[in-house]
Amino acid sequence: MNEPSEATKKLISQYKFSQQQNLPKQGITTIHVDEVAKRVAEFYEHIRTIVDWKEEHLMRRAAIIRKLKRKFFDLELNNFTETQSAAESLVLELIRGGHFPNDKIEESKINDVQKIIDKYVFILKNNPENIAGKAGLSFYNWLIEVSACEIEETLSPSIKEMALIDYMFGSMKEKIKVSDKLFEAGLLKKEDINTQIYIAVCVTLFKLDKPMIVYNLLRYKYPGWQKADQQLIIQISKNAFKIWQEIETNLTSPLANKFHAICERYDTPYLLMGDILSELESFPNAQGIAKEISDPSILESLIKSAYSKRLSTLKSRISRAAIYSTISIFVTKVLTLVLLEVLIERALGGKIDLFLLAMDVLIPTLLMFLIVISIKKPSKKNLNIVTMEVMKIAYRKEAPDTYEIKMSRKKGATVKIILSLVYVLSAFITFGAISWTLYHFHFSILSIIIDIIFIALILFAGTAVAKRAQELTMEQEKEGFFSFLSDIFFLPVQGLGRWLSNKWKRYNFITSFFNALIDMPFSAFVEFIEKWRYFIKERKEDIR
Questions:
Q1: Cβ–Cβ under 8 Å, residues 401 and 385
Q2: pTM, two decimal places
Q3: Which of 45, 125, 217, 269 would bridge with 389, disulfide CB 3.0–4.6 Å?
Q4: Which domain holds residue 493?
C-alpha cells in the first residue's frame, strides 16, 4: 500500500465536493424556457457553430462573448443607465440556445450574473484610460471576454477542472527549474516563473483559450476576484488597463513556448488522474477513494481503463474537429473568395468552370482527410510510460523529477542569414510547386491564389487537430528524414495559414453579417415565440 500525496488527497476532496454541488437541490426554483422556442434557438446555434467554429469546449463561451457584446452595445447606447434586465435576458437566451441545461440552473444565478455585468460596467466606466479615450477597442473587448468567462463559471462552475489545473500547477512548480542565464539575459524575471507555468498548464491541460487564461490569471493574482467587494472593484477599475498590459506581456513572453513544451509532454498523467477520480465518484467519501488508489495494483488497473476509454474517444473527437473546422473554413473564408472569383470572372467576361470551382473545395478538403488518416495511435510502450508517471504524481515522492529550461544556443549573424534564406527558398519552392501544378491543370491565376489560401488554412487547422491527437502521447517522437523534409517545405504554408487565420478574425465578413443582420432579429423572434407560447397557455387556462 502506498500513501497518496497530500496534493492528491486535496484533489480527491475537491472532486467529491464538485459531485455534491451537482446533486439536485430540493425546494430550489430553477430557470425554465419554452421547449419550442428552445428548439428554434438551438437550430440557429448549430449554424453559428459552423460559422464560429472553435474547439468544442470553447463553443459555449464563444456564444456568451457574442451575446454579451450585443448586450454591452445596447447598454452603451443607453449610457449604461439600464443594466437591470441585462442578466435575465442573457441567461434565458443562453439556455434557449442549448448552451446550458433547461430546468437545472437556479433562478438566483440571474442575480449573480447581474452583479458580474454591473462589476465590469463599473470598471469600464471608471477606468482612467478608458475615460480619456486611450484604452481603445482591444481593451473594451478584453473586458467583455473576461466577464463572459466569469459568467460561464458562475452558471456552470468548473470545480473539477480548476482543481486539476491547481494539482498540475503545484506539481510543475516543484519540477520546472529555470537556468540563471535566462535571468541574467533579461529574458525572464524570477517573479514571472509561476505565472508562465500557470499559463502553460492552462493551455496544455484543457486547451483553454486566451480569454479563459486571462480570467484564471486574474483569479490567481487576485484570489478574491469572484466575490470582490467594492474596495477591490475600485482598485481594479483604476488599474485595469495596466493589468491588461501586464497580462498581455506575460502571454507573449519569448520563453512561453519552452514552458508549454514541458507541460504539454507531461499533461497526460494529470488528465488520466482526473478521469480516474471521476470514475470513483460513486464512493461515499473522499477517504474511500484515497484508500482505493493507495493500492498500486488497483491504481494500475484504473489507469489502463481510463487510458483505454480516452483513446477510444480520441479518433471520433479528431474526426469531428476536422469536419467542423473544414466546413467552417469553407463557409467563413473560402466561400467569400469563391464568390469574389465568380464576380470577377463575370465582370471580365470570362467563363466560369464549375469543375475547377469544385476542385477549389475538394483539393484542400482531401488534404485535411489525409492529415487525419495519417495520425498514428500511441504505441504500447507509451501506456507503460504513462502508468509510471501517474504513479509518480499520485503517491508521495521524496525527490521529484526536474525539467530544466535552458538558454537556447546562440546563432551567429551568418548562420541566422543562411537559415532565413533557406526558409525563404523553401517557401518559394513549396508555393511555386503548388502554383505550377494548378496552372498545369488550367486553373486561373485567381483560382490558384484562392487554392493556396485554402490549403494554407487547412494545413494550419489540420496541424492543430494532429497536435490534439497527441494528448495521450508521452514517449519521445522519433523524427525520420521524411518528417524533416516535410517540416522544411510545409512550415511556410502553415505559417501563412496561421497569419491568415489571425487576420480573418478581424475581417470575417460572414461572422459580421450574422452578428449585424441576423443575430439580434433572430433573438427577438425566438423571444416572441416564447412569449406567444406563454400567452396561448394562459388563454387555455382561462377557457378551462
A1: no
A2: 0.80
A3: 269
A4: 322-375+411-531
